Each structure stands twice: as structure tokens, then as C-alpha cells.
Amino acid sequence: MEEFNFDKIINRRNTGSLKWEVSEQELPMWVADMDFETVPQVIEAIHRRADHGIYGYTVLGDDWYEAYQSWWSRRYQFEIKKEWLLFASGVNPATASIIRKMTSVGDNILVMSPVYNHFFNSILNNGRKVLENRLLYNNGQYAIDFTDLEEKLSCPETTMMILCNPHNPVGKIWDRETLVRIGELCLKYHVLVLSDEIHCDMTEPGKYYIPFASVSEKCRDNSITCVAPTKTFNLAGIQTSAVIIPNEDLRNRAGRGLDLDEISEPNAFAAIAPAAAYNFGEKWLDALREYIWANRRYAEKFIAEEIKGVHAVRAEATYLLWIDFTSVPGNLADLCNFIREQSGLYLSDGNAYRSGDGFMRLNLACPRQYLEDGLKRLKSSILKK
Hints:
This protein is an alpha/beta fold and 385 residues long. Helices cover 39% and strands 15% of the residues. The longest helix has 25 residues, at 282-306.
């Protein structure tokens, strides 16, 4: 970890950063965007491309495909064929496009809530209905209510399930048995699985996620998987992702949708950044995971010892801390705004993820100095509540 300085403070104000478009006294720890420089070789690759001076229409080279194939093979033992990979200009645009192409207006799309808020936007904005399978929360841990899941998958109007693997915001790695069970239920009721695996690389050191499409042939052939280097290597502004579709019929249909929606062509940097990240970023990523999990342990300890009535939910994945405020006295509906007004700490309100009332999400992917500041602000706000 000595090679990479994750303690380095980089001023992101006045750079067009969505995260840092806040007032001078505020500290943003909300959106899933890291405050670390990316892999040095990625910066070098972008500089080389930028120095060329011509940024015309761009095609994907073999290196783009090979980088994804090699990464998933060596880290997750999942062998991806070249033809399974489609480019998309982001996981969110791909999700919306796939919903439009693979389901019909008025269909139910099932999600396991609390879950990433943009799923709801993609479903509702395209005239489909959200069907929630609410995760069970007991003793600080989340689990799937399989009785409710099967009941809702069996509804004839349910045609797609969006799986968040690993799960954002609760930080859950779904084990193989769970994924197989989900896959079998979806196949039984003719429900297509769209698996968002954008947080796949950000797991606790020593632990790894399992790609949904890797657990069985049934899961492979009844699924579409969205992945990207953007969360892993802090490249969200590059607008790049991949869609993995082993089933040829599904691939042809979804691919036409990506083309029609004009999100299947890369910009000059979207084609090269993933290759540089996956080919040269492994050591950087492993050092980053160690740093983030040290941040997580620090935050969990601080909250347990310093903030009465607040509980940090144990997580195995993501760089996001899901915090339980349900034991804090008083009205919790406006707690997130209260914290921001009182201390300037900007967190994500759990209500955005549905079934998350009384919870908040804090981004741990920042220098320790920011985290210490944020936790002190959180404590001062709760003391004033």
C-alpha cells in the first residue's frame, strides 16, 4: 500500500464534480464517487490519447474485450466469450434501455429493497411498475424473504427482476446458493434477470463476489449482466460500461435496444480507460480495498463508541456504509436534512432506496481526514437532535 497515497487530499471544488457542488462549509459524503486519483496507468493512457489531438469516432479494439475477459477469468473464474460483451455508455443508460427492449409498458419489474435508487427511476420513467421484495432486517443483518420473492415472481405481470450483486446500499455479497435459488425461481416463472454488478470489485479483502451468470447454465442463459470499471477505478465521468449476455437471442434483442438508444458507441476515452484499468490496476485495487476497509472499521468503531443509538450495518462489499438511525428519538423523516443543516455533512437519505426509512448511506471512499471530519459532524448533529 506504500506505493499509493490514499491519504492525499485533492481539491475537487470548481471542477464540475457532481459530488462537490456544495457550499464551502459542507462535506459531501453521499454519491458513490471516490475522492482518490485513479490508477496511474489509466491517467497515462488518457494522456497519451489526449495528446494525439484528434478525437474522432471510436471503435473498440481487441484490448477492450480481452481486458474484461482476463479480469473476470483471473479474479472470479468466470470465462466470458468475446461475443457476449456489448459496450454501453454506462450501467444506468444500459439498464433503462434493456428495460425498454426486454419488457412491456405496464409490466412488473421486481427489486429487492432497500436498493439503488436509480432502479426505480429506470422502471417508472419507462412506464413499468416497481414490485418490491423487501429484504428482512434482523439483528443488524439483511436476508431475502424467499416466500415473498416467489409469490411476486409468480405474478404473470412480473417479467424482469433487477438483481443488485453485490447489494447497494446494504453491502451484501450474495452467496452461490442464494444466487442459484434466485435463478431457479426466475426461470420457473419466466422472469428475466438483469444483474447490476457494478460494485463487484469493491469487496472486503479476502472475499470475492460471485457473478450471477457463473453459478449455473440456467442462470447464464436467463440473464443480462451489467458491469463497469467506473466504481472500481473512479471513472464514472468517462461514461463506459459493458453488458454481458451469453444467450444469443437475448443478446441480439438487447443489442438492438442499445443501438436504437444510441448508447452503444464509445467516446475516445471510454474505449481505452477500461483496458488500462483492468490490465494494470489490480495491485492498486487491492491496496485500495485495504484502505477502505480500514476506513470502515474506523467508522464502525467510532459510531459504536461515540454515537448513542446509532448502528453501522455490517457489510462485505461496496465502499458505502449503511447506518441505522431507527433508535434515535424523535421524527426521523427529515433527519438527513437536519444533519446537513446542523453540521454541513451531506449524506444519502435512506428513503431514496425505499424500505430505508431511518437509515442513511455514507461514502467511505475518501481520505481518512475527511472521514474523521464527517463522523465528528455526525456526532455533533445527533447530540443536537
